[in-house]
Design a protein that fits this description.
GO terms for molecular function: ATP binding; DNA binding. This protein has about 350 residues and is α/β, with parallel strands linked by helices. It is built from 14 helices and 17 strands. A four-stranded mixed β-sheet has the order 1-2-4-3. A four-stranded parallel β-sheet has the order 10-17-14-11. It has a three-stranded parallel β-sheet with strand order 5-8-9, sandwiched between helices. A hairpin with a 4-residue loop joins β12 (about 285) and β13. It is elongated.
Amino acid sequence: MFSKAYSATIHGIDGLIVSVEADVSDGLPLFDMVGLLNSEVKEARERVRIALKNSGFMLPAKRITVNLSPADIRKEGTVFDLPVAVAILTAFGHIPDENLNKTLIIGELSLNGNVKKVNGVLPFVYSARQQGFERCIVPKENAKEGAVVCGIKTYGVNSLKEAVELLRDFSAFEPETVDIRQLFENEQEESDMDFSEVAGQYAVKRAIEVAVSGMHNILMIGPPGSGKTMLAKRIPSIMPKLTFDESMEISKIYSIAGLLDSKAVITKRPFRAPHHTITATALVGGGTVPKPGEISLAHLGVLYLDEFPEFQKSTIEVLRQPLEERNVTISRLNATFRYPASCMVVAAMNPLL
């Protein structure tokens, strides 16, 4: 008995579709997972087995093999729990096999069978639409985030049982809907800081206006309390409003980083102000599991470096290439990741005595 479900993994800021293949055969009872998996994905074996039991699905003593394909790309994260469980249940005949076609499944399982929130749903759903998928099943907490993408149905589920019922009969459930245009307009109208609130400071305001008009970087030098940070925080308010495509690009980065919170989409230009003790990796991105850095989180917005001389020289040096190329390229043994980094750098410092 063989079945195939579809899930996804993050590659840079895009989603990469992954086939979750399950085979059930006679032999010694065994649950094995293959496909170049990291420790988080390998641990899904125990989470899935116990979640199935606690959801009321008693599996016969069979040899179960799950393969995540393509096998030459490393699989990371906890998004594969739900699709693995669904593929196994389909192989045992609990779900019609044809209902998994054109369906992307994402979600982490708790031991009691509940489906927990995951990061990166927006790029997953976006990639699924580009690949011709018709529907996505995601955790309920991520449903609004996924529904932002037009042209594909997004269903939110709270538990494994609910996901099985949905896959048996899609007509019994309504897909999540979000009025993205209205949400976009309403949130852009709200602004807690505005450049027009600044009194005086005519020379520096003019310099900032010129810098913003061409997305040029700027360095402000002045004594403590002269208003450098106040001015910097208000720079996004004089930048052009985000277009829908720009908003989606920023939202994909924040979704991967797990910073969307309750918001379905980022509608304002970002303002990032890292502390001067930040490391080079945290600033430009990377790590054992590559993630976007502060310069990518500030994409199409402002990266504010206060107390500029306090930053380590090595940290400042790594900014040179991203600022020239407007993206960050991170190479690892198994893959190369590229994150956008087109931002305006605003630095501030006290006069040198």
